[in-house]
């Protein structure tokens, strides 16, 4: 649902910093949202796994970081508790020692002989058992010169969520890259194009056009009221059905297993164009299908294996399974603005500006694979016609302002623990890019420290789509099986489109 945006006019224009402004920024207080991520039950770390098509030169990375990322104040500042202001936290600029942030681990050659892919996977898994040190800026970069099945080397960027939301952090990371074919150009991110609306209610002139607008406003108003009430009910008592993928109390403190699978973005585009939908519709439909198949297997683990159908399966009826969808509410800063900020020492608005959308998944088996897509599209279209994200953001801000961090943290924690999972779909570069001269094979973002036992991220890059899972293995012991189900579901949906002749050249 990347198309949902709050068009608020508070985005500051990019402007050259004066000496006075830079001095004032030396001890800027942390925003309430940033402080929230220092609560024990919200100590969230963003992970960006980058596959490189060449071996990574650590010295080149260090030299380039000095002139780019370190110019961003968040990446060169400590988060310090101000005892004079009742323990509030503030950003304090400091000199960065890159040797403490760039990690090049010693590699056990014996483990590489067994399985290089498993070595990298276990390394990142062990990384999720640790937290970033507050005595230095809260980020690090791990460089693994290990040849895997899909890359010559792997870089793992780890950033504390208090530095910014996932959208802004990934945008900043991409601002440090350049097109491999044109080393002086930053990546091109496709914009959100509105689907043509063929409904006659918006094309009819005169009185009917007036009624159409009134009806549209009434639907927006009603949907928003319903969604806000559901949000409040979820905060207080409304829980998702207990399923094999729902996290247990304390799941946020467990390490995560990160697994990912790269599929063809062209397959998603084929379905999108054939059914006049969006990539997000297709991604959510395939996710709904994959989760239904996976849960049917988990619920039927003690039953005889038989062919499951829409009417005959192992799934309980009326499963309530919702995802918290995090929505970026700021007008997109853009990669160009972030690149200029680092290159020309300018200023741009930063931080955490995200709202919640509670997105229901219909968990059931369908004989027709395209039903999953149609249901997902209907759900998303309904959510787009609501101001839920704006109001949930406002409610969270009011809770922070009037009741403090502890209460706000408790509210946010209850919302997440009363739902089942987290989902995101990020749009990536259209062309191949290089990270400081190292051509990138794939980008797989995720996070750990969240109460959900399952997080699913879709990340596009050139003609690829990477599906990334962050799982608590005590809840989901077979994440590769879930990946298989997601991939197979997408294939069945694409095959159904092709067989029925929906796609036209």
From TrEMBL:
The keyword Transferase applies. Residues 350-494 form the O-acyltransferase WSD1 C-terminal domain. Its main location: membrane. GO terms for cellular component: endoplasmic reticulum membrane; plasma membrane. GO terms for biological process: triglyceride biosynthetic process. Residues 61-283 form the O-acyltransferase WSD1-like N-terminal domain. The keyword Transferase applies. It catalyses: an acyl-CoA + a 1,2-diacyl-sn-glycerol = a triacyl-sn-glycerol + CoA; a long chain fatty alcohol + a fatty acyl-CoA = a long-chain alcohol wax ester + CoA. It is a single-pass membrane protein. Keywords: Acyltransferase, Cell membrane, Endoplasmic reticulum, Membrane, Transferase, Transmembrane, Transmembrane helix. One of its GO terms (molecular function) is diacylglycerol O-acyltransferase activity. Pfam families: WS_DGAT_C, WS_DGAT_cat. It is found in: Cell membrane; Endoplasmic reticulum membrane. Pathway: Glycerolipid metabolism; triacylglycerol biosynthesis; Lipid metabolism. In the N-terminal section; belongs to the long-chain O-acyltransferase family. This is O-acyltransferase WSD1-like.
